[in-house]
Amino acid sequence: MLDALPHIDETVEAPDSPVSLLPSLPNILFPDFGIAQVPTLPDDLSPAPEQFTVDTDSKASWAIACILEAEERISRRKALADEYKAKLDAWLDTASRQDDNAISYLSFLLEPYVRDGVSKLRKSKTLSLPTGTASMRKLPDRLEITDATEAIAYCDAEHPEAVIVKKELNKSVLKDLILKRAEPIPGVEAELGGEKLYVKPLPPMPKQK
Questions:
Q1: Residue 36 to residue 3: CA distance in whole angstroms
Q2: How far apart are CA 32 and CA 171, in angstroms?
Q3: Would 162 be classed as within a structural domain?
Q4: What is the per-residue pLDDT across 48-82, written as a single tens digit (0 to 9) for each?
Q5: With left for phi above 0 and alpha for psi between -120 and 50, is residue 69 left, alpha or beta?
Q6: Would you say 69 and 25 are in contact if contact means Cβ atoms under 8 Å apart?
Q7: Is 171 a member of any domain?
Q8: Contacting residues for 145 by C-beta, under 8 A, at least 6 apart
Q9: C-alpha dist (Å) from residue 167 to 42, 151, 154, 170
Q10: Facing residues of 129 across strands?
Q11: Buried-exposed string 167-204: b where 16+ CB fall within 10 A, e elsewhere
Q12: Is residue 206 classed as helix, strand or coil in its secondary structure?
């Protein structure tokens, strides 16, 4: 009797999609494994059936095939989500373009009137009108460094107070101190890297000449 195996949901498309009617590769190659279900505990919480273990090449091949198909489904979902997001972003940009232009144009026309109206007010800096309020606010000053090397060289010589010497920790040295020399460093956490399973499909077979 087969061990209890994890159930893989193979219906990844819409119910009426022809793709959902096709059997998956794991179910074709390993039909006995593919029909297994995840064991569920009964109401009396009696022990579950023995857990499935990978202890043969067939079971390992089944697990690899299922992992690869799951990764492919995730990849397809992500591609679909990215496609929809790109379409929504394009729609939003197109749909809002006319309103953005109207806001910019009307703001350009309105600004001189509001600036003049606010200048005549004694206390308030807001012009109140029947449909809304308008005010003038100072925007933050803008500074953009277009060539950091050139700017640092000049300020180093002429205005050293404008140059900040930044201290950074050397992670390579820290790893050596903590992981190899076992020296604790306050404020730093480190752990030895473990191993992680990576599954890749087999390379395609060369074509026969």
A1: 9
A2: 50
A3: yes
A4: 556 778 889 988 998 899 899 999 999 999 999 99
A5: alpha
A6: yes
A7: yes
A8: 151
A9: 60, 20, 21, 10
A10: 132
A11: eeeeeeeeeebbeeeeeeeeeeeeeeeeeeeeeeeeee
A12: coil
- Domain range for 170: 148-180
Rounded to an integer, what distance in angstroms lies between the CA atom of residue 178 and that of residue 188? 9
* d(C-alpha 169, C-alpha 189), whole Å: 13
Q: Is residue 39 domain-resident? A: no
Contact at 8 Å (CB) between 118 and 126? yes
Which residues make Cβ contacts (< 8 Å) with residue 184, sequence separation at least 6?
178
- Look up residue 96 and give its two tokens: 């809002």
Model confidence, pTM? 0.59
What distances in angstroms separate CA 198 from CA 5, 37, 64, 66, one per listed residue? 21, 25, 10, 13
Q: Considering its fold, how many domains does the chain have in total?
A: 1
Question: Is residue 157 assigned to a domain?
Answer: yes
Tokens of 61: 């091949």
For the stretch 115-169, pLDDT in tens is 999 999 988 899 999 999 999 999 999 999 999 999 999 999 999 999 998 899 9
- Residue with token string 């109401």: 43
Establish how many alpha carbons lie within 13 A of residue 32's alpha carbon, considering only the half-sphere containing its beta carbon: 6
pLDDT digits (tens, 9 = 90+) for 41-51: 455 555 555 67
Query: At residue 157, what is the residue type?
Result: A
For CA atoms 63, 69, 70, 75, give the dihedral sign.
Answer: positive
